[in-house]
Structure formats: C-alpha cells, structure tokens
Amino acid sequence: MERVGIDNPTIEVRFENLKIDAEAYVGNRGLPTFTNFFVNKILALLSSLHIVPSGKRPISILHDISGIIKPCRMTLLLGVGTRFEMLTELSRREKEANIKPDPDIDVYMKAISVEGQETVVTDYILKILGLDICADTMVGDAMIRGISGGQKKRVTTGEMLVGPAKALFMDEISTGLDSSTTYQIVNSLRQSVHILGGTAVIALLQPAPETYDLFDDIILLSGGQVVYQGPRENVLEFLRSMGFKCPRGRALLTSSKSFSVIPCGWKLADELATPFDRSRNHPAALTTSDFGIGKMELLKTNISMEWLLMKRNSFVYIFKIAQLIILGAIAMTVFLRTKMHHDTVEDGVIYLGAMFIGLVTHLFNGFAELAMSVAKLLYSTNRERDLSFYPSWAYGLPTWILKIPISFLECAVWIVLTYYVIGFDPNIERFFRHYLLLVLVSQMASGLFRLLAAVGREMVVADTFGSFAQLVLLVLGGFLISREKIRSWWIWGYWVSPLMYAHNAVAVNEFLGHSWSKVVNATASNDTLGVQILKFKLGYLLTRTALGQGQATVSEEELREKHANRTGESVELLPAGTDSARPMTSSGGGGEIRQAGSGRQRGMVLPFAPLFNHL
Hints:
Rossmann fold, 22 helices, P-loop_NTPase, ABC_transporter-like_ATP-bd
C-alpha cells in the first residue's frame, strides 16, 4: 500500500468540556441484596409511570474534561472509577459520527478473514497478534479444550482490528491475565496502531513497567478531571515541575495514584484552541452508510462463514445421521410390516404411534441447534452486530438456508428405512407427502431451538426453555393426551403445538389412502376404516374443514328413516323434547320399536306386510 501511495484513513478524536452525570442509589439501597433488587425494580417501574420518585440521587462522574487523542499513537488511560464512563461516551459519539473505514478496504479485510483463504494480509495480521501458531485451533469453551486465555483475548482484538472500527476504546483488557500475556497483547495492538494508522485508548489498572513503556501518550484522571495528558516521556518531568517527586525505588504508576487535580499543559490548551484542519481529513474516514458493503455482499459473506462453520462442525451432522439410522432400525423392527394389519381401528392407532415416533425423532434431532446457536451468539455474534459487521437478518438467513439440505438428507434417511418396512400406504404420492411433512417438522424444530437460543443467550437458560418447549409439544400434541382430556387452561398448548398439526397431516395423508379404504361394518356406517380411525382419534371434521366454515348436518331421525326404508323395519317419530341419543330397539316380527328404559310399548301399524326380512 505504501508503494502505490494508498494511505489508510486515520481518525483524530477531540473532546471538549465533556460532562457525564448520572443517578444512583446512595447508602444501603445501593447494596446488591435480594430485597434491594426487587424493591428497586418495583420502584423503577412506578417511577417510570410518574407515581413515586425513584429515590436516586444525582452524581457527577466527569467534570468538563478536554483532550485530543491523535492517530497512529496508543494512549494509556489511568485513573479511578471514571475510565469506563469516559471510554463509553467517546465510543458512543464515535458511532454517532459514523466513523468507519473506507468500504473497499472493509470488504477486502472481512472477505479474506471469512472465506478461510490464507493470503498475505491474513498471515500478516495473525503474526502481528501472535496467533499464527494457533491459526487452525478451535477457540474452545468450558467443555472443549482450545486456545489459552491470552490467545482468546487476542482473537477478540483481531476481530476488532479487521472490523469497521478504526478508533478502539478498550477497558481493563488485562483482567485475569498475567503480566507477560498483557505485554504481548498490548505490543500487538501497538504494532497494529502504528502500521495501520489506528487510534487506540486503553485503560489499565497499574500495568507493569514494561507494558507502560509501550504507550505513546498518557491520560491521568482523578476526581472526574484530567490531571495530565501528553507524551509518556514527559510525565515524570511534568510532575517534578509541579512539586510531586517520585520516591526512590518506587514505580511511577504507583506514586501517581496519590495525585489530586493538576492543571493541564499549555500545549494541549493551544491545540484545542486551534480548529481542526478539515483539509487534512481523509475522505474515507467518515461514511454515511450503516454497513461497509451492500446487502447481497453481506448475505454472501455470511453464507461463506456459515458454510465454514458447518464444515468445522461436520461431526455433529454425521453423528445426527448415525443416530437417525439407529433409531430408524429400532422403529422398523418394533413396527414390523408382518405384524402390522389394516383390519380394525386398533390397528390404525398402532400406525398413529409409528407416525408419532417419526415426528418426535426429528423434533429431538433439532435440539442440537440450541447448543451450537448459543455458542455462536455468546462468543461472536453480539460483538459483531454491535460493531455493525452485518445486520441480524444477514446472519439468520444463511443459517436457515444451509440447514434445508441437511433436513432433506436426514428425513430421507429416516423415511427410506421405515416407510415401506413399517407398512405405510405404498402409493408413491403419499410417500413424498409424508417425506415433505417430515422435512417441515425438521425445519420447525431447528428454527424453534435457534429462537430459544437467541432468547436465552446462556446455555442454562436456553436449556430450560428448550426442555419446557419439548414438554409442551409432546404432552399437548394431541397423541399422548387427547384433546378432550386436556384441561381448559392448557388447551392453548394444543392449538399452538406444531406437532399436533404435523401429526394430523401425516395421519390424514395415510388413512385416506388405498390401504385403509375398505368398509369394515357396513351396517353401522358406510365410512371407510381410515375415516373411522380419523374420527376416533383426530376429529376428522376439524382436520378436513377450515375453522368457521359452515357444516352440513343430518338429523338422527332422518338417518333412522332412511335405514328403515332400506331394511323394511318400522320407525317411530319421537315426540318433541325426547332425547334422540337414547338407544332404540326394534322387535323384528311386530314391526314395533321399543325405547330402552321405557315400560310402555309404542309403535304404528303398517298398511302392508314387510317383505325380504331375511336380507
């Protein structure tokens, strides 16, 4: 870039008369006790409704501080209690000012880091951060052994360096690290800032002398005001001129903690009084777009990233397919075709159980998405979203798109093993309908557990949500407990359960087939065996008709008259108010009908003799 005359955009940060005021609880109200937590939450809600005062008192954090943070220099921020607020305020104003790099540079840097290609720039950044020795190692977590804690810190720093942010505001990056690791991280940042033209402000708590010597400028805060800001080499001389002498054998950082308010140098005041020369401003330092590239480029980049993660987690998908093969072998031996019949309603209920096992298997198979989604959200996605790497939709769509072929493959393995072995309807059209319904259930399960992972954000919370969702879907799905047995306060779980709709759809697809088209008892009903099973278990009218649509009904008296006309039996019209559901018995020879539970016989005399009594 130097040979062709391309300069990286640089940023100079200026802040004048910066004030930060806040409200906080004073005294015992501010202690993190169980009682204070709930009392403060309730009072905060009532205060937002302007019912009671909040009980908080105003406090001042920063008092009219001013300063300049120059590019290509690394600044150390020292102080007590106010460093985080200052860094947060500067970072917020930087984001509001749309301080981002050139889009072309942004695209180039992110593309080479996502696509997994080993290029010169990729190797260069890895070497700067000291990550070239672990470039092909998993980051790891509490369950997976990965890189060390210091290397994880440098990975986070690397994500910030290749992102759109050119001004870095870091607070307590050395927490939990030893002095050697802290020195390596700060040294990596120093090289990056000097070479790539960045701007960095880092807050550390009493760093080691060798780490302190890596910084170019020092900002010392005390009591909410700037005590000193300037080059590191002039700190000791400036403090001596103000009457503060560092004791012999004592580190400069330790003795500077006892300083109170000291006026800023005249050089800094002169620089602030001079307006910023906009002619020296890089044209690519500021941008008006939210993201560095277009929507399609963002989508393609995230698809490449998701595909890379899927290849790295290929063991999970191979294990899921092996699990499906084992479960399919168990299911097809339990529901073997030689022992499965199509003769009675009880046989249909057994087939309903076989369908339910297939649906539940794919539901549980999607549970693996919860852990993988939580890991991605926890370690990278939140940080990348906050830094405007990409919008949420550009991250969610590739995950859904690339999981569709996986669902087709998993469902194909299951249905090839079980469909014809169990003895479902052999019609090829119904075979593919069954297959499509399983794919939809698999997609539903994957999307559901990804949603619960996004809501929970933590593994323990997400597992709790996932277990509860599985319990509701299984118990209230309409198979383990019928709809009539579900309590009224739990009926909502039946109607919102996707498993119920999937089970009904699979059952309708199966029992309306040719294998279940025979009429078992023509005298009782002309319905086929499949329709009788649907009426018995699923509520056939509800599955075949949209809610709210009118239904044609026929009275029981009319049905009895039609039956009597076919068989030659006599029928009695019941008087008004009589329960038509009470059973009626007929005396075959006398042509008279007797109502059960009644001691008096009633009937009518026909003007002809009924024939064909033997039919």
